[in-house]
Write a structure and sequence with these properties.
Elements: E1 5-13, E2 16-21, E3 24-30, H1 32-42, E4 47-51, H2 63-71, E5 77-80, H3 86-95, E6 99-102, H4 104-108, H5 111-120, E7 125-134, E8 137-142, E9 147-152, H6 153-163, E10 167-172, H7 184-193, E11 198-201, H8 207-215, E12 221-224, H9 226-229, H10 235-244
Parallel strand pairs: 1-4, 1-12, 4-5, 5-6, 6-7, 7-10, 10-11, 11-12
Antiparallel strand pairs: 1-2, 2-3, 7-8, 8-9
């Protein structure tokens, strides 16, 4: 049985780690290089680095910052934000990233997923989906949650996996930053119906929330930011709790 993964997320804006609630009210959370190194030392299984305004501001992810972070960590590292071509991915992988995350650009041009999977392998391609529950279903949002689409999250995830995405990073905008728990229903729908790992994101507030998303929603990994950045929950303590609860963890 595969071990479940705990993944801190570093949302980056202007070279700083930031965090908000429901994708709004962004506040500073520290230096991404220091935080990345700290999480690696604390036993995080992976890191995710997202330049949250790269797409909206039509600029590329800060490759130099990626290089500096990668020098300080010894765990797998995913990078996203403003990626729209094979060339973009080549730069980031050469800068030290292990995987890349695509969101808006892939939705607008789904062939990008095929191209990246063909060039670098599916294991390198993470499809990020920002989704909001409204009118009875979960819909895809673009540009850092600013633009609503009429496409349902599950339908887009299914298509992307068929095109070669090797992993889904699913963020519930309703739950993001609320500390009320992950969106178990949509996470379960993807986990139980897709043949790739699903990372749950948005809403972690307690250790029990992680247990629920692993056991009830069957997520392969759980991503969080606020509770780790402000040291409300320590990664080793979380892993120990989950292990004692019967969740298969890596130490």
């Amino acid at each position: 049985m595969l071990t479940k993964r705990i993944i801190p997320c570093l949302d980056i804006k202007d070279g700083r780690t930031v965090k908000g609630v429901n994708f709004e009210n962004i506040r500073d959370a520290g230096d991404p290089i220091e935080l990345g190194a700290f999480y690696a030392e604390q036993g995080a299984d992976e890191l995710v680095f997202l330049d949250i305004t790269a797409t909206n501001e039509r600029r590329k992810t800060l490759a130099e910052l990626v290089t500096r972070i990668a020098r300080n960590v010894n765990i797998p590292f995913t990078v996203g934000g403003g990626i729209s071509s094979v060339e973009d991915v080549s730069v980031l992988l050469n800068s030290g990233a292990d995987k890349i995350s695509v969101n808006t650009s892939a939705f607008k041009r789904p062939e990008l997923v095929d191209e990246l999977a063909g060039e670098f392998g599916s294991q390198c391609v993470v499809l990020a989906i920002d989704t909001r529950f409204e009118n009875g279903d979960w819909y895809v949002y673009l540009n850092g949650g600013r633009i609503k689409t009429e496409i349902k999250a599950f339908d887009w995830a299914k298509e992307a996996v068929q095109r070669g995405a090797g992993e889904i990073l699913l963020t519930s905008m309703n739950n993001d930053g609320t500390k009320q728990g992950f969106a178990l229903d949509i996470t379960a729908q993807l986990s139980q119906n897709l043949n790739v790992p699903v990372i749950a994101s948005g809403g972690a507030g307690t250790m029990e929330h992680f247990k629920d998303v692993f056991e009830i929603a069957q997520a392969d990994a759980a991503l969080a930011a606020t509770i780790f950045h402000y040291k409300e929950i320590e990664i080793q303590a979380l892993k120990t709790y989950l292990y004692k609860e019967g969740v298969n963890m890596r130490f």
